[in-house]
Amino acid sequence: SLLFTLFGSGFCDHWYLRRGFTISVMSICFILPCCFPKRVDFLAYIGSIGIFAMLYPVFLTVYGYYKITPHNVIIKTQPTDLSEMFAMFPVLGLGFQCQEVVVPVYSCMRERNLCNFMKSSVLAMSILFVIYTVIGCFGYLTFGSHVAHNVMKMYDANDPIVMVGVGALIIKMIATYPILALCGRDAAAGIYAELRGLKAAEFKASEKTRRYIVAAIWFTSSLLLAIETENIGVVIKYLGSVASANIFFYPGICLLQVVLKKDPDLKLRRSPFLAIYGILIAGVGAFCFGVVLFTAIMDRSVDIRIDLCHLGANVTTQA
To answer: Model confidence at 314, in pLDDT bands (50, 70, 90)?
Structure first.
């Protein structure tokens, strides 16, 4: 813990240094104000900072690989059974789940056309692929199969380089959360409008009030979950199943609906192939969702939780 490193084991004795209070203050001061605007244009500069903050953990894992000498490292080159193979889907699903921000990002582009959007999408996915590959490979080679869900826990927080890495992750979360919150906010507002049967004029007239209320509720619920959930592995296991559905099932259904809307009788040559492809993708998504969710429910393994409040002063801490 960063606070343990800075203030020692007695940090838990001060209410203003406890996890719940520090997370709440940081979130309310830096994240909440960014959740209310209607558009995300202003996040372009903050997002750039978030990208550079993401690059620091890449350096940290490479740095740790050459500096740390762990013992009893077990490197597995293949899964023991199928359940271990499917266990990777939640991580991949959450890591590459970005279709939710497609619409708001496209709406804020200066020149809205498919070519520019494809360029930005390919560039973003390429950067993600490189970042995940480097962190995954060097992190696994350093700690082996015993690596924690949050690899930052494996590093010594007394190292200034690791402390900077923790700070970089905090900046990254501040920079990226508002974009995802905007997607959730708009989706919730759309569901509300459908349930209430609001017309376009009514929906637009109450947009500002509804936006503030939904954003506040969304932020508050996220904050409470963040405070109560101390193990990110739990989040990855269960929300990863939903991410699997988001990546495969929903895009497949959308593709099928678009094809049927444009060509209900499937007379065009490409329409049957697109329809079959949409059904196939949706089927894969449904299968992955069920398998990953079942695996998460049956999995009894947990990360080792260290109570920093009761550690001695001479204990080496981890981030």
So the answer is: very low
